[in-house]
Specification:
single chain; alpha/beta; Glycerol-3-phosphate (1)-acyltransferase; PH-domain like; seven-stranded antiparallel β-sheet; 10 helices; Phospholipid/glycerol acyltransferase
């Protein structure tokens, strides 16, 4: 795309949080987390002082308030995606924000800024390693590059695994925030001494284990009742395949029920987050099991050569933090070889290809605002200098399947490498 619009400055080095903003941040975070009964379980944290690398799970906006409380009274820098800077770049820069685009082929500049934060600013440096809000209340895949970076940086690693945040406001439906008690595990998983001998595989094992969460299981184990009468609203966005007839994109989540509009099978979501089939024997009472069943279908379709995605899409460009710019309608395709996006902008044909091996996952959005104020589910594709929000036209509940396909195509491709 022509360079008439200046891209976001990824090169800009992070700064320490401005002293006058710190009490404001505490005032916003501490009362809320106290009222929500936040309990922080500190494991192997005794004696640890900044700088260190803090890896956080990511469920919703309240995560930042939980993190502020968990590391209090210390401050930090934060890796933040460019959409987080929209309309507030000055603020985020001055509380230690480090800009990035999600899932770009190379992140050399990001690595340098993280290293600068640790080496020169000597503060806690935060990465929300899943890079987006949890899709279904379970851990998203972490890239191998993260574990390589940990080894090279040579700093202690702490994981903040949060619980109750997803239940407060699931990303797929975004209800009014529920007043659920919060809990978090703050665990030093790699000490400075460990770094002298620890291997890549050991780093991967420790971080992956510490990052594991299942919010639906947490709800059941802690007998957390969610009596919201619309608790199944939009559940079809993540459970898009009927578990009985296997028809796709025919599910409808309304009230406390999710129903297949093709075969009529209905499930009810109870107060503890468990599904019960109303007209038959329940096969999947645990939402993540149904969710992963769909992933397995996509995996098999990729192996059998039966997967192909094609759609016309509305496209918005997010070149910098000033906001979105609608660039028109294009075509998005995806198969086991990768993603292909084409469109015309300012008399120029834009042709973007992302090979499968360059993309271990992809960012998706639910009911996201487009520039014309219409809400829609989107697929987000970034280059080094631009980010394109692609909204499939006349297709229902396809973005989760698209994400599955990107992740499974990557796994299949890399297993053959």
């Amino acid at each position: 795309m022509k360079n008439e619009i200046k891209p976001f400055d990824m090169q800009k080095k992070p700064i320490k949080e401005r002293w006058f903003l710190t009490p404001i941040k505490w005032a916003l975070a501490l009362p809320v987390t106290f009222m929500r009964g936040l309990k922080v379980n500190r494991v192997q944290m005794e004696g640890l002082k900044p700088p260190y690398l803090l890896l956080c799970t990511h469920h919703g906006f309240i995560d930042f308030k939980v993190q502020t409380r968990a590391i209090f009274p210390h401050t930090a820098t934060y890796v933040v995606a460019i959409d987080g800077f929209i309309g507030r770049e000055w603020l985020l820069r001055n509380v230690g924000g480090i800009g990035k685009r999600k899932f770009t082929p190379q992140d050399r500049v990001l690595f340098k800024n993280i290293k600068y934060s640790l080496d020169e600013l000597k503060v806690i440096t935060t990465i929300y390693a899943e890079s987006a809000y949890s899709i279904a209340g379970t851990t998203s895949r972490l890239p191998d590059s993260l574990f390589k970076v940990i080894k090279v940086l040579n700093y202690p690693v702490v994981v903040l695994n949060m619980h109750g945040n997803f239940l407060t406001q699931p990303n797929y439906s975004m209800p009014k925030p529920r007043k659920i008690k919060l809990e978090a595990d703050l665990t030093q998983v790699i000490t400075k001494k460990d770094l002298e001998t620890i291997t890549f595989d050991e780093i991967k094992e420790r971080v992956t284990k510490a990052f594991h969460y299942d919010e639906w299981q947490y709800q059941l184990d802690h007998q957390i009742q969610i009596k919201d009468p619309n608790r199944a609203k939009s559940l079809n966005k993540i459970l898009y395949t009927c578990e009985t007839c296997l028809k796709e994109h025919e599910m409808m989540g309304e009230g406390k029920k999710i129903t297949c509009q093709s075969c009529g099978i209905t499930h009810e979501l109870d107060h503890f987050g468990q599904l019960h089939k109303i007209n038959g024997e329940t096969k999947y009472n645990h939402v993540p099991n149904w969710y992963e069943m769909q992933r397995n279908i996509v995996h098999q379709n990729l192996l059998n050569g039966n997967y192909f995605f094609e759609s016309d899409v509305y496209i918005d460009s997010l070149r910098n933090a000033k906001g979105f710019r609608h660039v028109g309608i294009g075509k998005l395709t995806h198969d086991i070889n990768g993603i292909h996006l084409t469109f015309n902008s300012m008399d120029e044909t834009i042709d973007i290809t992302r090979e499968t091996k360059s993309l271990y996952t992809i960012h998706i959005e639910f009911d996201y605002k487009k520039t014309d104020k219409i809400k829609s589910d989107g697929i987000v594709i970034s280059t080094e200098s631009d980010t394109f929000y692609c909204y499939p036209i006349d297709k229902k509940d396809v973005v989760v399947k698209f994400r599955f396909a990107v992740e499974e195509a990557y796994q299949i491709t890399m297993s053959k490498a």
